[in-house]
Amino acid sequence: MFDVIRIPAFKDNYIWLLRKGASAAVVDPGDAPPVLEVLDREGLSLSTILVTHHHADHQGGVSGLLAHYQAEVFGPATESITGLTRPLRGGETIRPAFGDVELQVIAVPGHTLGHIAYYGSGCLFCGDTLFAGGCGRLFEGSAAQMADSLGRLAALPEQTAVYCAHEYTEANLRFALAVEPGNRRLQRRVHEVAVARAKGWATVPSTIAVEKASNPFLRCTEPEVVASARRRAPDAADDVAVFAALREWKNSF
Ligand code: ZN
Ligand code: FE
Hints:
The protein has helices spanning 33-42, 56-59, 62-66, 143-154, 169-179, 184-198, 208-214, 223-232, 239-251, and strands at residues 3-9, 13-20, 23-27, 45-50, 72-76, 86-88, 93-94, 103-107, 116-120, 123-127, 130-131, 134-135, 161-164, 206-207. The chain is of the alpha/beta class. It has a 6-stranded mixed beta sheet with strand order 1-2-3-4-5-6, with helices on one face. It has a 6-stranded mixed beta sheet with strand order 7-8-9-10-13-14. α5 runs antiparallel to α6 (184-198) and α8 (223-232) crosses α9. The longest helix has 15 residues, at 184-198. It is globular, with a radius of gyration of 18 Å. The N and C termini lie far apart (39 Å). The model has no long low-confidence stretch (mean pLDDT 98).
């Protein structure tokens, strides 16, 4: 097991730092200075960098970190990742140098085609695939791919902590409530998140259980979700079509 330290970056990114003893791993370092500051403050040495996909806000800090630390860089084999030393594909299990920890690599195409997630010790690092209350935009993949990817994540144990890469929860839940106004658990979550955000608190990590209960993108077979999607896209016949209709709707919400 490892500790997870949240490092806010840019406007609404989270970089996750995994600490075990005096060594550290970092997930999706979009920016180096805030990571270097935490490593210094905590007296840690960076040995592992884990990247989920190629977007700059997830890997822009890699070269700045490599200027200070000789770290291995894990990332998707099919994307262009700075300093990549360990190209990965879904289905692999890795043992990063930072600690005696096993992580499973899960292929989650949709937001980008090579997007991967890391899962181990009850923690999921899923980049821009599953968000608290929502999911990533389809920049490269299809709705079917993303629906499939989210299904793989939803199948993880209920208590899995979901470490996504952005604080988008409040806006995501506003949309969720428009889709599923009758969901009591969702209503409660909207309230909890509003209270947390008013205090300036983070709403990530969440859990797979919470996401399954209140994230519309994981609820494409629920009658109220299907009905709302069909109001926008009357011929949405199956759950992938429902998912696609929701994703479209969210883009302009
Ligand atoms: Zn992204
Ligand atoms: Fe991002």
